[in-house]
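User: If you would, consider this record:
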Amino acid sequence: MTSLGNPSAIARAVEEFFAQHEVATLRLPSGWFGRPYDNWHKLTGTQADGEDVQVRLDDKQELTLDAEGVSSEERILRVVIRRGNWRWTEYGADVEHTEVLGPGVVEFHAPFHR
């Protein structure tokens, strides 16, 4: 599956990926969020907001992506972005962080056991 430029189609692709795999680990343009295949996230919402795609994970982590396109193969969903923001809260604490994302790819990796 490949989709270019349509925020609604990209949000739907993220929803369909999580509907099929339930959880995924996250790789940002800056690298893995946590250790690879160690932090599993559940999708709690997506929406297209103008040109951006918002992806909410675990009820408290939020990606806002200026996405160019999306593609998937087997257990990996790739969202190509121009820029974005990653807002997350530390596990076991209420300390919030924000990371500005430059151009690159946000990847969701599903578990091997599926």
